[in-house]
């Protein structure tokens, strides 16, 4: 049988991360497509969706960096958002239609008193207009078709939720630090309800995704080229391993690395004195390092070090 013809991928192969300061009014996938065309790159994905209304840190993964996207999405995220009291919207943000109103406006003290139950490990119902799948379909597609969407509450982790500023009686600005999969629109909606009123988000900015900071972000406009202008330089990309910088490091010998590379689980007893304090003994990840070189990722579980992904010795 003749070998199957494989079409050569279009575009230039390049690996690394680029942090975009996403503009409002544009979906995350639209940003990916524009950047992919600008760089003429083979493969680009994003490390954590931002709503069209939102602005700020949107990490984009090129080539081999797409393998590290799950670790970026699991990382700590920081946001600022503005909550407008008095109107509930079907999307829980200002892009939606008004579905309920209230004349109640909470005081600063009432807001601060209502915040503690929203910190720590909480249960949260995602917005009806979200990418959650229900019976194989996206919730936002069902909602747009007028179908009643019932989404089960899910566990979420909110490490910080604080009132920052009160521009006027109708508005309040908050600072949030959270884990994976926390919806700011749900926080805003539920806080307003807890205060005896209704509300929705009118502004949302993401300041951090794990090691990707607002200070690293470049504007989308600065990358868009036209005419005979050459595409942006691949030198703008951060190393593939940047997404893993927040994962604690564990030094390994050549022999240990060889065993882990071949998928062998090892007792944590062998690593006593080297296990980083910040690594959770039950389910925590560590970066296995040989000097400055990243070898792979392992998980601590049941007193064992379990290989999870081998990276092939990339620069750390």
Characteristic key phrases:
single chain; 316 residues; alpha+beta; Pseudouridine synthase; Archaeosine Trna-guanine Transglycosylase, Chain: A, domain 4; 3 domains; 10-stranded mixed β-sheet; 5-stranded mixed β-sheet; 6 helices; 19 strands; 16% helix
Annotated CATH homologous superfamily of the largest domain: Pseudouridine synthase
Mean pLDDT: 90
Name of the CATH class of the largest domain: Alpha Beta
CATH topology of the largest domain: Pseudouridine synthase
Secondary structure class reads alpha+beta
Strand content: 35-45%
Family: Belongs to the pseudouridine synthase TruB family. Type 1 subfamily.
Function: Responsible for synthesis of pseudouridine from uracil-55 in the psi GC loop of transfer RNAs.
Enzyme class: isomerase
Keywords: Isomerase, tRNA processing
Helix and strand layout, with pairings?
Layout: E1 16-22, H1 28-39, E2 44-46, E3 55-62, H2 69-73, E4 77-85, E5 87-89, E6 98-101, H3 108-114, E7 120-124, E8 133-134, E9 137-138, H4 139-144, E10 154-168, E11 171-178, H5 184-194, E12 199-209, E13 212-213, E14 218-219, E15 249-251, H6 254-261, E16 266-267, E17 285-290, E18 293-301, E19 304-315
Parallel strand pairs: 1-14, 3-12, 15-17
Antiparallel strand pairs: 1-3, 2-3, 4-11, 4-12, 5-6, 7-10, 8-9, 10-11, 12-13, 16-19, 17-18, 18-19
């Amino acid at each position: 049988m003749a070998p199957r013809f494989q079409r050569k991928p279009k575009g230039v192969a390049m690996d690394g991360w680029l942090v975009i300061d996403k503009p409002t009014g544009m979906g995350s996938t639209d940003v990916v497509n524009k950047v992919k065309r600008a760089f003429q790159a083979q493969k680009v994905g994003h490390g954590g969706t931002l709503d069209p209304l939102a602005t700020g840190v949107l990490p984009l993964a090129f080539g081999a960096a797409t393998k590290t996207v799950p670790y970026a999405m699991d990382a700590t995220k920081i946001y600022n958002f503005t909550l407008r009291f008095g109107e509930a919207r079907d999307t829980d943000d200002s892009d939606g239609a008004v579905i309920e109103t209230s004349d109640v406006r909470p005081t600063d003290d009432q807001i601060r008193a209502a915040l503690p139950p929203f910190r720590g490990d909480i249960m949260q119902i995602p917005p009806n207009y979200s990418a959650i799948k229900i019976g194989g379909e996206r919730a936002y597609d069902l909602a747009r078709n007028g179908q009643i969407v019932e989404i089960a509450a899910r566990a979420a982790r909110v490490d910080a939720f604080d009132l920052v500023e009160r521009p006027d009686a109708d508005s309040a600005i908050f600072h949030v630090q959270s884990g994976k999969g926390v919806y700011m629109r749900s926080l805003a909606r539920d806080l307003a309800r807890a205060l005896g009123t209704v509300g929705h988000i009118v502004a949302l900015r993401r300041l951090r995704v794990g090691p990707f900071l607002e200070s690293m972000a470049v504007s989308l406009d600065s990358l868009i080229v036209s005419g005979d202008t050459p595409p942006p330089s691949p030198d703008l990309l951060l190393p593939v391993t940047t997404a893993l910088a927040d994962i604690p490091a564990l030094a390994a010998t050549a022999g240990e690395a060889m065993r882990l590379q071949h998928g062998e689980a090892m007792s944590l007893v062998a690593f006593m004195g080297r296990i980083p304090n910040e690594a959770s003994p039950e389910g925590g990840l560590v970066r296995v390092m040989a000097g400055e070189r990243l070898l792979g990722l392992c998980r601590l579980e049941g007193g064992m070090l379990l290989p999870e992904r081998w990276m092939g010795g990339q620069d750390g």
